[in-house]
């Protein structure tokens, strides 16, 4: 049957050389693919492992880079890069499209069957790809209830699922309401899951460096959010369809 394989891929974006992690399922046939975006700190082994799991499930998966191969563990450094980025939809789209192009041109990828799953800043990048009219089968986000420029959500062509912790001070109820109002006004097929008692980045295992206030790991909800991501992909991007089952 063979095994899943991985390799690093380098590509230009945002004036940097990005270093992504590509995971390929066993076999040689074309498969549906998932673009996987990291939290604002940048690509880490957490996202690499998630890409590997998706490959084990039968997807081509690319965990994309945000910071030119760097992981920004210092909160001040992370915020200094991410806050201007989050305020600039065109920069986010450039980062997203560069990674999407790498994934789409991978020979194992079915270019007509791609989804984006992103966390924090990586989720915001995924939403901007949707607002830019990218051909996607699904957009899944956690901790990324960002709103876009007026009217552009109408260009989203696929279902959107979003997850957030009820106690997340970075994505408070007012932000939730603004996000859902935008999606509803645009006629998007959207869903929002609120995980009770969870903080920001509740899905991410504890790290050995300082974090911004309001961050905390919630093991139960982390597992539930991952199941919700997998269920979204099973609904909108089933592997069985690609395998002819």
UniProtKB/TrEMBL annotation:
Domain of life: Bacteria
InterPro entries tied to this protein: AB_hydrolase_fold (IPR029058), Dienelactn_hydro (IPR002925), FrsA_esterase (IPR050261)
Keyword flag Hydrolase: yes
GO terms of molecular function: hydrolase activity
Keywords: Hydrolase
Span of domain Dienelactone hydrolase: 20-235
Family: Belongs to the AB hydrolase superfamily.
Protein name: Dienelactone hydrolase
